[in-house]
Amino acid sequence: MTNPIDPGSLSPDQARALFRAGLRVPTAGWCSGWTQANLIAVPRDQAYDLLLFAQRNPKPCPVLDVTEPGAVSAPLFAGDLRTDLPGYVVYEHGEPVAEVSDVTGYWRDDLVSFLIGCSFTFEDALREAGVPVRHIEQGTNVPMYRTNRMCRRAGEFGGPLVVSMRPVPAAQVADAVRVTARYPSVHGAPVHVGDPVELGIADLDEPDFGDPVEVRVDEIPVFWACGVTPQAAVMASRPKLAIGHAPGHMAITDARDSRYLVP
Amino acid sequence: MTNPIDPGSLSPDQARALFRAGLRVPTAGWCSGWTQANLIAVPRDQAYDLLLFAQRNPKPCPVLDVTEPGAVSAPLFAGDLRTDLPGYVVYEHGEPVAEVSDVTGYWRDDLVSFLIGCSFTFEDALREAGVPVRHIEQGTNVPMYRTNRMCRRAGEFGGPLVVSMRPVPAAQVADAVRVTARYPSVHGAPVHVGDPVELGIADLDEPDFGDPVEVRVDEIPVFWACGVTPQAAVMASRPKLAIGHAPGHMAITDARDSRYLVP
After folding, report:
1. What is the pLDDT of residues A119-137, one digit of tens each?
2. For B7-257, CATH number?
3. How sure is the predictor about A87, in pLDDT bands with cuts at 50, 70 and 90?
4. Assigned fold of A134-225
5. Residue of A45, A46, A55 best to disrupt the B interface, most CBs of B under 10 A
6. CA A161 from chain center: how many Å?
């Protein structure tokens, strides 16, 4: 399948129908004005530790909604969490065992799904402020990196902070900070501006998730906390089962971006 | 014991030592610049439902810290949670069974303590903005009320929103909103301004917790979400055991108010 002409103009329902039908694309730039979310689902026995992990690490893990055990939709997400994302990763004991576009076959009645804020949500605001968003310009997935910063542990969950990176012209870094700081529930202001080595990232061209993007000579790499962090915690902490979105392939929710904008 | 001369100038450590020695007073106006917190402790088996209740009701239940099971201190609170608050209420099956100044005898190794933001934290900022804080002027406890607004349920926990009330001169209501909105982690902006009947409060002079305060003729009652809400949920939901602070008798933490101020 090819992309529809203008994914930015679709409603969440329309986008979810395309994904349910099998379209597999990163969702940056999709459904302009609608909040996107990371998914991480774990059995009820692990849900307290994961919720506490999110509470202790609010920058990478801002919780937007949590389902009842086994539920496949949520107040924020009227679709079906098993089929309506463009891609999933299934983990068993921390190992990715499947990358699929439908997790119905893996679903269990005790799975608790967490919807966690995603920085794609503030990309419309960045673009409105004139800040370029390179991965959207390039039509690729955002680059994401494991860092050397460890999250605060909660029960069985610990692991590294994961970040997304957008190259920003030096003269616009302040704008990028100012604009994104107004969206604290979808990662907010950057966690790091500049030298990737300080985050333990050896080579920007080799992201751990997503695709590399061009960083131009007048641009500074700017790093935001990323909702793939719980999946890094799953890989580090090896719970029996977990289901996440494929990085960059988000849940498109029924909440407006403006809901997460602070005055 | 009588109050020390200037409770506002004490450090958290000094205040906690006085409370540990048996002083029982409401803490509004104490330890200027230091964040105050509500306490609710429940057995580990109920902790997921309570954490989810807080996540689903962030306005009354902004979580500042959660302890490990059985722990009596926390990164935010270097004191002893069993002795260093000026008052506690112990609940069994939702009934208050003891109001004491030391809960060491009730403590269990599986108790998880939640520290939840308290509106006392922004009262310094209100006073700096020239907004009167009547219960501090009167030297009484803040009045708190159960409302007719129900919280969003989580597992076994549900119940009414509890609010605190401060009378504000009509010309200063906007200032009170503006100042407190900047502290979202300690209840933020008011949930209601004006007629108490709309919240199901029949008589301001009969608060459910704390003391009544004078409302002058040019003043409007302004209501903020209150961290006693989890105790109302405990009373409604009847878990086997819960320990809370005595309303208005808060945990004084080692965090600065400025930590919870948003730009």
Report:
1. 999 999 999 999 999 999 9
2. 3.30.2040.10
3. very high
4. PSTPO5379-like fold (3.30.2040)
5. A55
6. 13
